[in-house]
Amino acid sequence: MHVDLSFAQFTDCHLLADKQACHHGAPVYQNLVGVLKEIKQNPQVNFAVFTGDLTQDHSDESYQNFVEAIAESQITIPVYWLAGNHDDRVLLNNFLSEAPFNNAKQIEAKYWQVLLLDSKSETPAGELTKEQFNALHQTINPKKFQMLMMHHHAVDVGYFIDHHGLNNQNDFWQHINLYPSIKAIACGHVHNALMKKHKNSVYQVPVITCPATSIQFDQTASSVVSAGLPAGYRIHQLCSTGEVRSVYHFLAN
Hints:
The protein is α/β, with parallel strands linked by helices. It is about 20% helix and about 25% strand. The chain has helices at about 30-40, 60-75, 90-95, 130-140, 170-175; strands at about 5-10, 45-50, 80, 100, 105-110, 110-115, 145-150, 180-185, 195, 205-210, 230-240, 245-250. Helix 1 (about 30-40) packs parallel to helix 2. Keywords: Hydrolase, Iron, Metal-binding.
């Protein structure tokens, strides 16, 4: 079976101004570098997509640390990105402006389109606007398959982060249901490696969540508590038949 695209997804770094600082006990800068170095060692990966929440303390230094982590890992493949609820779009554009960063939100291959959607809203929860849905309709090529990527999750996952999920899930799935060519939704935000399907998805499109480079959430807790798992990421393989193969990886302790 021909693999049309093979790429990495990493997410939710929650970096701080101090590279040595920890977030809920995790050395987040070192975690990020470790994930990036592992991605770099995979010769099949064509590019990487960062799905948001670069910063925890909203400092300029945290954005600079992200740039320096990319440099330290010696990643040379294109790194695409989108905003998470913690992020500032202006700072993202300012800091992630030179290679290997690529601010394109549409990645085209022979059989596939990977489309990056900005779900950041005025609150920690996510939302897609009418204008964004209209733009999506104009972008989708029904002769290809699509994977959509965004920060927020478009299906409930069963723990506290659902308070900050995608607000307009029903609207979202009404639009997605128009296209049998959409084969997967990939997101960050939930700090765990999950695969869920929304009850309103006519074509049973999976929502694939990516483990964080910072911490994985304890799914039994009522707020942010580390589950004690290592930093993680995903490798997505998009096949010429429309099949999506997605494998999550955790760094060795």
